Amino acid sequence: MNRLKLCGWGYEGDDLTPEEEDGVLATYATRFEVDGFERTTMPDPAGIELAAARLTPPETLSGICSTDHMDRLLHTYGESYPDYVRTLAGDFANAPDVVAFAKTEADVSAVLDWAADAEAAVIPYGGGTSVVGGVEAAVGGSFKGAISLDLTGLDRVLDVDTTGLTARMQGGIRGPQLEAALRPHGLTLRHFPQSFELATLGGMIATRSGGHFATVYTHIDDLVESVRCLTPSGPLESRRLPGSGAGPSPDRMMIGSEGAFGVITEAWVRVRARPTFRASTNVSFDRFEDAVNAVRLVSQSGLFPSNVRLLDNMEAWLNGFGDGKQHLVVLAFESADHPVDAWMARALEICQECHGRYDAEAMRDPDAHKAGATGAWRTAFIKMPHFRVPAVSAGIIHDTFETAIPWDRFDQLHAGITSAMHQAIRDVTGKSGYVSTRFTHVYPDGPAPYYTFIGLGRHGALLEQWGELKRRASDAVLEHGGTITHHHAVGRDHMPWYERQIPAQFAETLKAVKKTLDPSGVMNPGVLLAAD
Amino acid sequence: MNRLKLCGWGYEGDDLTPEEEDGVLATYATRFEVDGFERTTMPDPAGIELAAARLTPPETLSGICSTDHMDRLLHTYGESYPDYVRTLAGDFANAPDVVAFAKTEADVSAVLDWAADAEAAVIPYGGGTSVVGGVEAAVGGSFKGAISLDLTGLDRVLDVDTTGLTARMQGGIRGPQLEAALRPHGLTLRHFPQSFELATLGGMIATRSGGHFATVYTHIDDLVESVRCLTPSGPLESRRLPGSGAGPSPDRMMIGSEGAFGVITEAWVRVRARPTFRASTNVSFDRFEDAVNAVRLVSQSGLFPSNVRLLDNMEAWLNGFGDGKQHLVVLAFESADHPVDAWMARALEICQECHGRYDAEAMRDPDAHKAGATGAWRTAFIKMPHFRVPAVSAGIIHDTFETAIPWDRFDQLHAGITSAMHQAIRDVTGKSGYVSTRFTHVYPDGPAPYYTFIGLGRHGALLEQWGELKRRASDAVLEHGGTITHHHAVGRDHMPWYERQIPAQFAETLKAVKKTLDPSGVMNPGVLLAAD
Q: Where are the alpha helices (DSSP H) in A119-223?
């Protein structure tokens, strides 16, 4: 079995090649006008100091619980920039005391019961792909210890309904596993967040993850037909329904609950037939506002493209397209039912009306989705997480944040964020950096812009420098009307802004819900609700 | 200004013609093999006895509060079958003590404050179109009185955003008013529940109403960008966002809250350009299961028709189509952006593959949506509510109920409901009756079937007979896995089944939310949560 990396994305051995890594760093060196970078390396895991485990699992749980050094290290962090910085620094102060590897719902229940008795925090741990501190046992001093509850043993597809295109799966199943189980039926969930390779279904639901499609049914919110959650107060399982008007949706209370109310152990999800018809191409724009307009009009057209992602000139260049001047719209349609030519033709008309240019030849290639800009974008998108550890080791601050905003407020938000981040990078690093944007998802009423910022940091100060940049970014997002997160979730990192964003009365209802479902307050404390 | 009817749908003078009424009753007479019907008539409103109002509004509210006899009568009921039976019987035992006509948010707040002080129940009253007892002041003995809070004075469109296709509206605006305000901008909400003529936006949101489109974004749930709600604990206003991954959705907690948590005073809603391209036709099927299959495959095709409503043979016949043997699928596409021929062509191919037959000529008519089966269906759909009072007055029990169910469970649910209702009508009325079905909305994972049942009741026993039929229907829906309501809401009539349907832990969270937002428990007591 493959071993997960302690530092970096994915499994051991699954890295950039030295040539790829050198290439990326050389590009950065040119951009920052430096000769090279001082590199830090990962300390020997065996030598990393961990506090003694404060919890002793009861006899009945000894078979699934571990206080093994590597298990604790591997369950300390998610995949955020500060997670990587601290990993490379050998700082594992918040390591969980115990890792519990649940194989069954009974295991989950037993761990929740034990935690309440032992006054221990429980951190549900799926793929461990949180980029917002959602799986870190930074739970404050009021607990007698912390248990990382690893759910990846709950990894089965339990039912596949080929008539209604639904499937029942356990919460700990990872993206590739669930796709493998659906493939023999000709089906796919087609929910491919960037964390797909590792992320679990339960984690996707708990964090409201954003999917493959740029439009229409794409959020995991839309793909959940019913959910089963083990809360400390008992199981909460909603009825399998394609739609319902019976009171507020129980599903929507658990979707986005980030482990604070309980553990998502099962869900019925909406799947679909694997696409057989495809069309894709890329459209270039000289002016950013023209590209934005084109994406807006396509999103409001009712054509529902599978992809209509906008990459600004910098983002396009970072992904290997163009000369750094052209803005790019990656446009694609797919269907399991019908050829999509009429759809693509109309979407391209809209782009042309907005002064976009596209390569008519590339479109005719049936493998176009694997080739050209679209294909390169797919590859870059998949490889992207691997760029991050080399960046940290070279002292480069490289992070992303994302939001969503109504169209009529986008221009102001975009200008505000871009100028705030350029200024922040100069203030924090003493040097200019890079800020780029793309749209990951678009709605008829607004886009979900996704920002990347890059600055040349300083070893030893990276955490603090990153923290200041993240604060400036989050302030700008909130100030201009955006949401603190469109699909990365709240976790611990976004809490100060989440508390500013949500209506005060809604915060009170969340407290009341938490008190009801988790009366001892052991579930992922500090996430969604400030720890007392 | 038009006056609303005390008994029956719509405004005074807006009735079936005597000929239309006679025609409908003659059809019923033939079907029930009777010579005619004993008719009851509406008593003189002035002579209807009302208990003395138990509440005296404070001086500050005297300008908006009324204890006028007609105001109290007009705010006693919604538009359900038992509402009509009791109206015709002159039974207004649950009339509110006071009707408060709010013109501003300040009025709403003042009424909520007064209610808490006076220990009076508040029944938010929008269009008064509830068919589930949602606006009836049947609040039990623990209150010192009941206030019907009429919100139709909050009837303004406050902002129209033609870039992002959104608009901010007050909660008391009725369907035709909001469409009239959008029309000059070339926009439409295009949310046309059967109650459209009277229903208010806030009521639609509070009850999760189902819209015009049979597929994709159609529920009011999908059309709400943000919501503002005055709760007894203070205002709850969500941020305007096209999408968000920041914790559980605040909007989804208020959507479907049925007045039990507060009053929806404003919302930003997603609107769209008025359609200019249309195609519609009707497809006939000999076998019901073929029609179901066709609708399922179309709903799973990604074509997203605006209409793909199935009418079974009985329903088709009741609406004036065919000979009572053919099942009908009403199929339509519309767009403000592009011709929809390619969409319709593929949908018709699917129908043909399922042995459907259609009239190719009718399709070519640009006014097809106003003519033929589609047009007749529209007219019948709009006129349908007017058939109900004549039915009651003739002692005919005629009601509908609706649900939603995954496709793989539909056959069993449909057989179960149909046989249960035929048996129930025989048991209750001593005579065979009629049970028909249509699909009002379809999802890739299941349909929303809508049932009509008709039996020959007995004057004096109608309420009891209807009650037994409603119980049998609701039991059958729950037993076979459906939801107690897909878009009619819970109200008071569905409470026993809602309590069976929702997960126990979710019921506990709703109690906690209610306690938080409405600590005195004055908001629409008995709805969503059993009155203590």
A: 175-182, 201-206, 220-223
Asked whether residue B136 falls in the same domain as residue B29, the answer is yes
Q: Which of B366, B385, B404 is the last residue of a domain?
A: B385
Please check whether residues B113 and B30 belong to one and the same domain: yes
Q: What is the pLDDT of residues A221-248, one digit of tens each?
A: 999 999 999 999 999 999 999 999 999 9
- Whether residues B517 and A511 touch (CB distance < 8 A) is answered with no
Contact status of A1 with chain B (Cβ, < 8 Å): no
**Helix residue spans in A322-404 (DSSP H):** 341-353, 360-363, 372-383, 388-393
Specify the 3-state DSSP secondary structure of B21: helix
Q: Dump pLDDT digits (tens) for B221-273.
A: 999 999 999 999 999 999 999 999 999 999 999 999 999 999 999 999 999 99
Query: Are A349 and A426 found together in one domain?
Result: no
**How many residues are present in chain A?**
532
**CB contact (8 A) between residue A406 and residue B489:** no
Distance spanning both ends of chain A, measured CA to CA:
41
Alpha-carbon distance B443 to A164, whole Å? 9
Alpha helices, DSSP H only, in B274-364? 288-299, 313-318, 341-353, 360-363
Task: Tell me whether residues A233 and B505 touch, CB distance under 8 A.
Answer: yes
Among A99, A115, A150, where does a domain finish? A150
Q: Would you call A245 and B256 a contact, using CB atoms and an 8 Å cutoff? A: yes
Tens-digit pLDDT profile for residues A357-389: 997 765 555 555 555 555 555 565 556 778 888
- Contact residues, chain B, for A336 at CB < 8 Å: 302
SS3 content of chain B, % helix, strand, coil (to 5): 35, 20, 45
Same domain, B107 and B70: yes
> Looking up tokens 């016949």, which residue turns up?
B317
Give the range of the structural domain holding residue A87, as residue numbers without chain letter. Answer: 28-150
pTM: 0.96
**Cβ contacts of A503 on chain B, cutoff 8 Å:** 235-238, 250
Put simply, whether B171 touches A (Cβ < 8 Å) is: no
CA distances from A443 to A216, A233, B90 (A): 8, 37, 51
CB of A257 less than 8 A from some CB of B: yes
Task: Look at strands A146-150 and A121-125 and give their pairing.
Answer: parallel
- Chain B residues in contact with A303 (beta carbon < 8 A): 337-338
Q: How many structural domains compose chain B?
A: 4
Residue type, B269: V
Same-domain check for residues B458 and B483: yes
The half-sphere exposure of A511 on its side-chain side, counting CA atoms within 13 A, is 14
Residue pLDDT, tens place only, B344-353: 999 999 999 9
- Is B57 contained in some domain? yes
Same domain, B289 and B375: yes
Is residue A65 situated within a structural domain?
A: yes
Considering only CB atoms, B302 lies closest to which of A255, A335, A515, namely A335
Res B19: pLDDT: 84
User: In angstroms, what separates the C-alpha of A271 from chain B's closest C-alpha?
Assistant: 9
- Closest partner residue to A243 (CB to CB) among B346, B486, B511 is B486
Residue A156 domain flag: no
How far apart are the C-alpha atoms of A320 and A324, rounded to whole Å? 9
Q: What amino acid is encoded at A212 in this protein?
A: H
Test the A interface: residue of B513, B523, B528 with most A CBs within 10 Å: B513
Residues 6+ apart with CB under 8 A from A330: A280, A282, A307, A308, A309, A310, A311, A373, A374, A377
Does A85 reside within a domain? yes
Residues of B whose CB is below 8 A from A515: 512
List the CATH number of the domain containing B132: 3.30.43.10
Select from B247, B301, B409 the Cβ nearest to the Cβ of A338. B301
Whether residues B54 and B122 fall in one domain: yes
> Does residue A439 share a domain with residue A341?
no
Count of residues in chain B: 532
The ranges of chain B with pLDDT < 70 are 1, 361-383, 532
